[in-house]
Write a structure and sequence with these properties.
The chain has about 130 residues and is of the alpha+beta class. It contains six helices and four strands. The chain has a two-stranded parallel sheet. Strands 3-4 form a two-stranded antiparallel sheet. A hairpin with a 5-residue loop joins strand 3 and strand 4. The longest helix has 15 residues. It is globular. About 5% of the residues are buried.
Length: about 130
């Protein structure tokens, strides 16, 4: 998502990253991922629960996830160990200025995320709808 940050800014989109991790572990992740976005900590996982995000050990540690970790490590990424609850699954949500959820994508495993192009398409539709 860092690669399309300028497009998000052009569309007047505010991206929030919500994590249940500790401030120290999340700051390390932000430095690694170049994330310029705002961060909110949710250690009690109230937001995770409100949006129906699941926990699953088996889906979190499937072959696809392990293969992704192998790819990251062989590309030079540093292993930081397991940070927090490795069974907690994430998701991506787009909420319009009117407070209505326009996209709800609940990840089936840690590697499962919607393509950035899909997110941008939803943002563009919202921007077009909101134009005078």
């Amino acid at each position: 998502m860092c690669q399309v940050q300028e497009e998000f800014e052009r569309l007047n989109v505010e991206v929030l990253i919500i994590s249940f991790g500790t401030l120290t572990s999340v700051q390390a992740w932000l430095e690694e991922t170049c994330s310029p976005f705002h961060l909110l900590l949710d250690p009690e996982r109230k937001v995770y629960n409100a949006y129906g995000l699941e926990r699953s050990f088996w889906r979190s540690w499937n072959l696809r996830t392990i293969w992704r970790y192998v790819q990251l490590l062989t590309s030079g990424r540093r292993w930081r160990g397991i940070q927090g609850d490795s069974a907690q699954l994430g998701g991506d949500f787009i909420i319009g200025a009117d407070g209505i959820v326009r996209l709800a994508y609940r990840s089936q495993d840690p590697t499962d995320r919607p393509p950035v192009e899909q997110l941008l398409a939803v943002f563009c539709q919202l921007a077009e709808r909101d134009e005078p």
